[in-house]
Design brief:
Order of helices and strands: HHHHHHHHHHEEEHEEHEHHHHEHEEEHH
Structural class: alpha/beta
Helix content: 55-70%
Mean pLDDT: 80
Strand order of the largest sheet: 6-7-8-3-9-10
CATH architecture of the largest domain: Up-down Bundle
Length: 628
């Protein structure tokens, strides 16, 4: 991942041209997933234009009706009857036009909501899925709260930007054009020019002030992101907070972040008052100018009273959407800040991706081979350096070494969470870069050092390795993982909820859930990443029994901190500073009296040749030994 990709989610500056983001947003409506809504989309646009046409013509009907009432001053009874019929007809037309101008948009909104909601769902699911498929380095450097807010804000922006642009901004421009034409043709071009000038001044003022406010909005978003990030981090790591008696310290951090947010929020609201006040002055001034012009026309006899009324009503109709236009423009500018971030997230490329024509991985014997592999983590100076080894199919190989030697890096490269800078990694003779990641990882069963569970039921967590597994299959796997009796003792059984990150379960119970997952998925290769290092001796023995069951008939690669767990391995690889410095079985490494022997003595307190295994947790070979 390039160095600045994490900043895309943290910063709040412009990330893409305004027009490009709007175009991409509307393009969502034309994706195959939205095909079923095409008729509704067309119908909604048609109703919007028709409604604006009625909105423009309604004041003309009202003006003509008033002109009929005032024509000729005092009139006879017969003429009054004829005039009465005429103004009633015009007033009726006015009422019908006005009803349709307001009613059609309500009908449109009723059936178009499904379209905007589905578009919002489409973009949010796509962004969520894309984030899930980004490489491990991205997820190590991002904050969960920030990523969630980017998707949430972007999806919400998608909904209201579509609605505003399609049904407020666009139709308002159509109404302005129609009204200007009607004013020029029926009453005089000066009224059309006055209306256009007012709208132009209003739009210019709105854009300038909104751009100023947009900077404040971005600053507000930044403080909001920081505030939520601190809250989520603190609540998620409450054990660490309590362990260090840091409750007051974290409350202070939260208070400072809240103060920053409040200060910025006040600035945003003050600038909103400036914008609203200026818009009201411009609209009122424009209406006054046109009303005075029409009044002089009536006094001079070039216009009738009804014409003055029609012009004023028409301008009121024009200026009324301007209130929405100002609000919509603010929302659009604010929304583009959010949707640009969403599209930036969706534009991010994973550093690890499948080749376009990559086939699925085909398991064979379970052989793993590293050939001259070099890799360095981003931001570090050390990593793996020219590492080569082979794990024969069906064998049990342990990987040991001091912290930072590269043990877990080997596993991450095997899972293809990263790609090596040089060398190859082969599984059953297939380069892991040449096959699909999903098929490769399906063939690898992982039991990590800390099994983190979803805040759901035991059934959900156990079946995560095999969606759709029956309760019988789940319980068989749980039984083999030494977890069956525990589940049977629970009042709710498999329906028991495990809590946030599985905190309702003990460490050993969570580890056995991890082992049960591996058994249920039935992978040809089992990966153990320090699966018992955080357990006490009694619990470790239970988990080791579960691991022995899980490892039957599989290739097993185990990264271990406790050497006792891999003492019976067919081959032990000893890493230091990113390279393999020793390899062999337990007896051979003890006899060599190198780093492995030193670590063994430190852990067991044994000073002899390794025959003394006091303090070692008994463990059978996890898999059949390789034929000598």
């Amino acid at each position: 991942m390039p160095p600045d990709t994490a900043d895309i989610l943290e910063t709040t500056g412009d990330a893409a041209p305004f027009g490009r983001s709007i175009a991409r947003m509307f393009a969502v409506l034309f994706r195959p997933a939205m095909k079923k809504w095409r008729f509704r989309i067309g119908l909604a646009f048609g109703l919007t234009v028709i409604a604006k046409g009625f909105s423009v013509i309604a004041p003309v009907f009202m003006g003509n009706g008033i002109n009929q009432l005032t024509a000729g001053g005092s009139i006879s009874s017969e003429a009054a009857t004829g005039a009465g019929l005429s103004f009633v007809a015009f007033f009726t037309l006015f009422a019908i036009a006005r009803l349709l101008s307001n009613g059609l948009p309500a009908i449109r909104d009723a059936f178009f909501t499904s379209v905007t909601q589905d578009a919002q769902r489409t973009i949010s699911v796509e962004a969520f899925a894309h984030a899930q498929n980004l490489d491990l380095q991205f997820h190590l450097t991002r904050r969960s709260g920030v990523l969630n807010r980017v998707i949430e804000r972007g999806a919400q922006a998608m909904e209201y930007l579509l609605r505003f642009l399609a049904f407020n901004i666009g139709p308002t421009l159509v109404e302005l054009v129609l009204a200007s034409i009607v004013l020029a043709v029926l009453y005089g071009v000066q009224f059309s020019l006055a209306a256009i000038a007012t709208v132009g001044i209003y739009a210019l003022f709105t854009i300038v002030v909104t751009e100023w406010r947009n900077q404040q909005r971005r600053a507000l978003n930044k403080t909001d992101t920081q505030l939520r990030g601190i809250a989520l981090d603190t609540l998620a790591n409450f054990e660490t907070v309590k362990s260090f008696a840091a409750e007051d310290r974290e409350a202070g951090r939260y208070d400072e972040a809240t103060r920053d947010y409040n200060r910025q929020y006040v600035k945003v609201m003050q600038s909103l008052a400036v914008l609203n006040g200026g818009q009201e002055v411009i609209m009122t001034g424009g209406l006054l100018v046109v009303a005075v012009m029409a009044g002089f026309g009536a006094v001079n006899g070039s216009m009738q009273v009804g014409d003055v009324t029609a012009i004023i009503l028409m301008l009121v109709n024009i200026y009324r959407p301007l209130n929405i236009l100002g609000w919509a423009w603010r929302e659009i500018k604010q929304g583009t800040v959010d949707i640009e971030k969403l599209f930036n997230l969706m534009d991010m490329k994973s550093a690890v991706s499948d080749a376009p024509d990559a086939p699925a991985f085909t398991p064979k014997g379970g052989e793993i081979r590293f050939e001259n592999v070099r890799f360095t983590h981003q931001g570090r100076s050390s990593g793996l350096n020219d590492v080569s080894f082979c794990v024969p199919g069906g064998s049990f190989v342990g990987v040991v070494g001091p912290s930072g030697a590269g043990k877990s890096t080997i596993l991450k490269l095997l899972f293809r969470f990263y790609d090596p800078a040089a060398g190859r990694i082969l599984v059953d003779g297939q380069d892991v870069k040449s096959v699909t990641q999903a098929s490769l990882r399906t063939a690898l069963g992982l039991v990590p050092q800390e099994v983190v569970l979803f805040n759901d039921t035991l059934r959900f967590n156990l079946a995560y390795a095999k969606p759709g597994a029956s309760d019988d299959e789940i319980m068989q796997a749980a039984g083999r993982a030494q977890l069956g009796n525990f589940i049977a003792s629970l009042p709710d059984g498999l329906d028991t909820r495990v809590g946030e990150r599985g905190l309702k379960l003990s460490g050993g119970e969570k580890q056995r859930v991890g082992v049960a997952r591996a058994i249920l998925s039935d992978p040809p290769i089992l990966i153990l990443d320090e699966a018992t290092s955080s357990l006490d001796s009694t619990t470790e023995e239970d988990v080791q029994a579960a691991l022995r069951e899980a490892a039957k008939g599989r290739t097993t690669l185990a990264v271990a901190h406790r050497l006792s767990t891999i003492a019976s391995a067919d081959l032990i690889l000893v890493l230091e500073d990113g390279g393999i410095i020793e390899r062999g079985n337990h007896a051979e490494l003890i006899a060599r009296d190198g780093l492995y022997a030193s670590l063994w003595r430190l852990q067991t307190g044994s000073d002899d040749d390794g025959e003394d295994t006091a303090g070692v947790v008994p463990m059978e070979s996890l898999a059949p030994r390789v034929a000598e």
